[in-house]
Amino acid sequence: MTDSSPPLLQLRGVNKSFGAVHVLKDVDLDVYAGEVTALVGDNGAGKSTLIKGIAGSHTFDSGSYVFEGDEVHVHHPKDANALGIEVVYQDLALCDNLDVVHNMFLGRELVEGVVLDETTMERKATETLRGLSVRTLASVRMQVASLSGGQRQTVAIARAVLWNSKLVILDEPTAALGVAQTEQVLTLVRRLAESGLAVIFISHNMTDVFEVADCIATLYLGRMAAQVRANEVSHTQVVELITAGRSGELGLAPTKEAVA
Amino acid sequence: MTVRTEEIAAEQTSLRSAFTGYLSRVRGGDIGGLPAVLGLLALVAFFTAMRPNTFSTAFNFANLLNQSAAIIFIAMGLVFVLLLGQIDLSAGFAAGTSAAVMAVLLTQQGRPWPVAVIACLLTGAAIGLTIGVLVARLGVPSFVVTLAYFLGLQGVMLYVIGEGGTIPVRDSTILRIMNSNISPALGWVLIAIVVAGYALVTLSSARKRARAGLPVQPPSVLWFKIGALAVLASVATFLLNQERSRNPEITSLKGLPIIVPIAVLFLVVLTFVLSRTAFGRHIYAIGGNEEAARRAGISIDRVKISCFVICSTMAAIAGILFASRDQSVSPTTGGSTTLLLAVGAAVIGGTSLFGGKGKIRDAVLGGLVVAVIANGLPLITSRSAVQFIVTALVLLLAAAVDALSRRRAAATGRA
Asked: What is the pLDDT of residues B91-108, one digit of tens each?
């Protein structure tokens, strides 16, 4: 359905090497607004490197990076933030000794003159959380230390959404969560997409991926094995793509070794 | 009639629920300044019971405030460094060195006091700046850097003071800081301003929150806080406005010691910096999770260096207080147990050595506890052995309370 509109983010032929190690090889990726794009792949497939390149923590060696139809150059996390790209890292990076509002505005506090504008920050934080239909937080003035894993994830995601972002990248948001909390976070991820954001969702859990993703991009040894619609593939096919780089018609062309 | 009683009943429940809420927070490990306040009350009660005629006199009360002032100023500066999870062992000698610079300019070179005071503050700031750069940019642990400064500054101080050993301070402005009082009437005016200012800030921020549709503490709780402050401040002012001189005909001693309004000013300004500015927020963030602060785009180095500059500059101010109180600067000024008592004061007040937790208020509360011990024990026993041991026990008790509340907080998820 969204194939008619151009992707929000389009990577073409992206390469990245660290010394002699060629981590990303001619990777293509399309991410559409209003969709959850799952990024899957085995450990060492290059997921983190790809994410860091998009977020500006690393710079791609070659290839084109097109955002909203324009070729852009992202060399620093601030460049990505300016475009409207926010990353929620696996370890969340929240300050336990500060409350929810303080964490959501950390480093980008609203001030009146030199005084922190606590009232506006609290109101905006409350509105953002309400907009995401988050009802699991008793008070936005609770210290983050007193929150559960799922609530922390919620705060971290809400922080990413607060800044009118267009693309939110979630690095294994459900990795350390229990069943009920995972469900909360997945609902939240779905809601982000429904509100028109583009979401890149990294996960090792196929059940989670099939529950939220519209589209699945599979990395295999630094190559993009396939980017497919989630409703057109089966669980088994995705697992084959992750482990072997191809599945039947899908995926990378068989190499000589594979034939032999 | 019924409406009024209902209103009163509602007010009472809001006060009561605020109180039970506070109790449950304390039980959950969020104890704040409570141990220091209780400790202070217990110590005062103990010494009053033991020595009613000497300890609990207006004269001794004023004396106590003067004794605690320098420690409190160093501790207020240390709070900034401790919040980062760092330490400054050199603050005592930073005070001594800065005071020595001031004394040399005043007494030996005959410069006017503003020049000497500015030079003193700049000395402190320069010490803090170099410590901060070494810690933040080179990544040398602050313990090691400030240990080196602890040793080195003693040498610098001896060098500045020279062969004479002790430099007298005779400038009347400097001496007045620790040796004069403000008139009783002015004392009441200042107290009124402080209480009115607190009431204004509390009520206007509550109104602003209410207008933005955010939850507000019930008015009865707000007024209770304002009333408590008014009562405490009035009692202290009343006591200090009594005649304290043994021979009132010769010299009259009454009114708030000048250092009290100065200390209150620093308490208010530094509390404002820590709790109401982005800079203060960033200090807490770095103490809580440095990596998170870095990813949030906070300039870690700049905040760290600023904190060390603030700490050493506050120490320089304490140096002025030492010089004013002792009417001289000697190689022992700011030495001996000064720094350790200041760290102890901050910790007793509730500031954590692990970073991320603490308030300027802690320095004042803890400093008073330390001063009460130092003031009260000599009235009971002249043996300094007892004093050291008792001070040590109080510090251990404070650290133990901190550790226990931390564990409790971890268990109840309030850490």
From this structure: 999 999 999 999 999 888
